[in-house]
Amino acid sequence: MTQTQYPKSKKWLIHTSSWIICVLYFLVVYGLLWWVKVPFETILYDGAISALVITGTSYLIYTSLQFYLPKNKQFWKLFSFAIIFSAISVFCTRFCLLQVFSPEQVVYLTFSMPFRFVINFLVITCIMIINIFWNIQEEYEENKERKAQSERMVRDAELYNLRQQLQPHFLFNSLNSIIALIGSKPQEARSMTFQLSDFLRGTLRKDEKQFILLEDELKHLRLYLDIEKVRFGHRLKTIFDYDESILVSKVPVMIIQPILENAIKFGLYNVTGDVLITIDAYKEENMLFIVITNPFDIDQFENKSGTGFGLSSIQRRLYLLFGRTDLLITNTDNNTFISTLRIPQYD
Asked: Can you give the residue range of the structural domain that contains 218?
């Protein structure tokens, strides 16, 4: 239940409970007076006046205690209020009846006053308890909503921070490569600068988005690979394998690039000769699979500790987005490192 629904729901509760009390109170008074052989006209007036007085009292209680929550050891205040309201309601009923009938016609009022007081006290106490429990429920729901909003803001801030940490890591590598190419291959350095500019421009456009189409993510990846191919020349070869129908799938922004960067790091830095990196994508039921494979040198790989900042950041992002820790799986097959990324697809 949202906060905007509370006022309407509470008004509905107040009106419904007040008029239910009105009808039931009238029936109780009517039955008791009929039992003691009070004249019919007097019964109707007494029942109607008593019911309307207790209904007006219930509205007064709801208004007075609309936001009241008793502190510890202060529940005695509620009983004090109940006693006061009960006394007021009984005397109001007596006063109104005496305006219509003579004291001789309502002589039964004198001995019925204690019974009326007890009944009113019980009814008013129930009304107060209902109101207090409703206020407690309101406060609980509002605190729950505030906590959820706070956690959502913290999660979004952490996701944004993780994405921003990845960009400088790639940017510094690219700038260092451009510097290295300026002297020996100025044309390639110039080309790489333009490609880096296009890549960063696309990255900035995605900053406000959490998910994008797989098609857009793959276009972004190709820009990234074009830059890396300038760095490594003919050694880096890539193959994309996917069906056109899955391009409309949604993926988190820049979720695949760190895996590719990790594949290039372990593939080209420690392996001599040409390196082939494959990117396969397919969909099974409501799960999108992205599998990236790259060769690696076993001796060099075993000396590395951990899985690197890129993969650990992906694990964290996937957990924040989907609440699962099994969406990125890495394993090896001889000299091939395999990273399997799973992205749930919700309609």
From this structure: 185-344
